[in-house]
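note to self — DONT lose this again. spent like an hour looking for the file last time. sequence + predicted structure for the chain T wanted, 362 res
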Amino acid sequence: MDTNTLVLIWFGLIGVLWIGYFILDGFDQGVGILLPFIGTDELRRRVMINTIGPVWDGNEVWLLVAGGATFAAFPLWYATMFSGFYLALFLVLLALIVRGVAFEYRGKRDSVAWRRGWDRCIFIGSALPALLFGVAFGNVVGGSPIEPIETTLPGFANSLNFTGSLFSLLNPFSLLLGVMTLLVFTTQGAIYLALKTRGEVRESARKVALRVGVVAAVVAVAALLWAQVFSGRIAVTLPIVLVAALAFVGALAMTWRGRDGWAFILSSATIGLAVAALFVGLWPNVMVSSIDPAYNLTVYNASSQQYTLTVMTWVAVIMTPIVLIYQGWTYWVFRKRISTSMIPAEPHAGRGDDRFAGASLR
């Protein structure tokens, strides 16, 4: 395959990886955000954590692969984005680490204060990435201060550099996109909880999904329509956005009717279509310069050599089905609904909070 075909494949594959991450880690971040609101007592909180206990770490693999694929396929995109957004992405990674530690440690001591402290970590470690990922994508799509590096060093004469700061990332469009991802992930988490639980937790999750979902729908429509201003293919992206809006309305309707499976499918389709619209509108750019379009990073000036892309393509063809089969098997094993009646009345300190209680095949 020629280089143009390979960069198209890898741009599309990176988009698919982000879609997978936002759908999968989106719902477990949503569950973490809802922990203080639906988890009004310890049994409820343990049920909520049990719904994502077997899968949350596997979901985050999509983020690692997306970052690794960007580094290998488009090194200049990776270098510019990760250096320019360094502080924001550092906060995201710190939040994800704290959240992971909290899942493992909250049940290590039989202490109310101990568990409440780690529950706060779960909430913060879920809400902060949900917000900042939207902010980051807002700056990728809407534009960032990127210009050439002024240097005479060999090999750097034509390099581009991010010249902004953390505060320059917090512009109105990116903040709106961040609020959108925060609300959509919260709704996705509530819908997932309704799908995975029974009894009082499920009823509370359905109510939250409907209430937050209405607000999320309004914000999402505003953010995605605003994104069309930056789209180079509005004739393609606008229909995608409209279908995403219809899918989200359908998800809320299915939630209201108690059709939790269809609600989750439609809400996942909404996230997938929204991310697809952003990537389609971005092509052939990978980062837009707010200083001068001549300084835009594109798939052509930011990509690796043809040999590297070819080797990566063969690795992806072999390994991707294996990963998908394994992760699908995990979801199948832990597919049953759980409820507070399946959780022991008292946690067993030192046993990871019995995260997998009640999640068996029976």
